[in-house]
Amino acid sequence: MSTIVTVQDAVTAFADFMEPTDSELDAIEQEMPVILADVDLLDAQIITLDRTPTELDARRIRRARRRALAARVALINRKSASMPGGAA
Q1: What's the rounded Cα separation, in Å, for the pair 65 and 59?
Q2: Which of 6, 10, 34, 53 is most buried when burial is the number of CB atoms within 10 A of its CB?
Q3: What does the alpha-carbon distance between residue 32 and residue 45 come to, in Å, rounded to a whole number?
Q4: Is the dihedral of CA 52, 54, 56, 60 positive or negative?
Q5: What's the 3-state SS for 54-81?
Q6: What is the DSSP string of 27-45?
Q7: Chain-wide mean pLDDT for the chain?
Q8: What is the arithmetic mean of pLDDT over 19-24?
Q9: What's phi and psi for 54, nearest 5 deg?
Q10: In terms of C-beta distances under 8 Å and separation of at least 24 residues, what long-range contacts does 63-67 make, across chains too?
Q11: What is the rounded distance in angstroms from the CA atom of residue 59 to the CA atom of residue 52?
Q12: Count of Cβ atoms closer than 10 Å to residue 64 Cβ
């Protein structure tokens, strides 16, 4: 026998206190270039799942990997530059 979820449980699952805070939204905003670059990389990889990758596909994946890596490096550099007491 399976349990039935009440309407109250469904309503409180999405209560106001479950919303992200302003600091969490700021962190997401800072990481958005990395997220978008990762999505582009996944798109390039998904295209090649059902076929043999061509040279164009391989270049697309390499470019997407480089963009994803560059976005990660830029994010790390921004975070380290904003931290006090960085390396001289």
Answers
A1: 10
A2: 34
A3: 20
A4: positive
A5: CHHHHHHHHHHHHHHHHHHHHHHHHHHH
A6: HHHHHHHHHHHHHHHHHHH
A7: 86
A8: 90
A9: -90, 175
A10: 64/37, 64/40, 65/41, 67/37, 67/40, 67/41
A11: 14
A12: 19
pLDDT band, very low/low/confident/very high, at 26 (cuts 50, 70, 90): very high
Confidence (pLDDT) at 16 = 67
Both tokens of residue 43?
């798109």
Lookup: tokens for 82: 């904003």
* Residue indicated by tokens 């697309």: 60
Sequence letter at residue 52: T
Residue 18 DSSP label? G
